[in-house]
Amino acid sequence: MNAIEIKNLTKKFKDVTVLSNITIDFEKGKIHGLIGRNGSGKTMLMKCICGIVPYKIGEIRVDDKIIGKDIDIPKNVGVIIETPGFLPNYSGFNNLKFLAKISGKIGNAEIKNAIKSVGLNPDDKKHVGKYSLGMRQRLGLAQAIMENPDILILDEPMNGLDKDGVQDMRQYLLDLKSQGKTILIASHSAEDIDVLCDTVCEMEKGKLKKIR
């Protein structure tokens, strides 16, 4: 069974092709890696899968729903794309509580559990504006997993983490995989990709090829 299916996806901005005829399936319950240089198209592909950027050519199915046709934004997907944006004058917990109110799916207990699971203290009153980059990345992952989605799309989730933080995050992602989650991760770290990923695809100039 596939969590994500992409057929003949092409994305252009005026005369510039940023994604070129991409066809790929991502199987459920596995960690799938995306590698490639900055500007190769990795982040744009993730944005299209999430419904953040619309497309006209090709088809993206997430849980058998066509993005942009059956649904605009896929349900049951947690996302970190680029540096997570939070309200700087609120605590981590209050930021996630504010976001959770939008969907109304979870309460305080689930939010606190998500924050604890990524190694942060849900009772810490420190404003997010005073967080380190690594702490913001952890909070971003807590946001992505707090509603217990089946699919995670993570763009450079290790950014700003120290060595111990990277080890913690790797183990956490492997634990999520063992729970049956499907994870699509973009990383510049060859070690992250080797340790975590069941499949690996490389992006170059908007084109995708499977290398493992």
Give a description of the structure.
The protein is an alpha/beta fold. The chain has 2 domains: 2-76 and 151-210, P-loop containing nucleotide triphosphate hydrolases (Rossmann fold, 3-Layer(aba) Sandwich); 92-149. Helices cover 31% and strands 29% of the residues. The protein contains 6 helices and 10 strands. The strands form 2 sheets. A 6-stranded mixed β-sheet has the order 6-7-8-3-9-10, sandwiched between helices. A 4-stranded antiparallel β-sheet has the order 2-1-4-5, covered by helices on one side. A hairpin with a 2-residue loop joins β9 and β10. α2 (92-103) packs across α3 (108-117) and α3 (108-117) packs across α4 (133-145). The two termini are 18 Å apart. The model has no long low-confidence stretch (mean pLDDT 94).
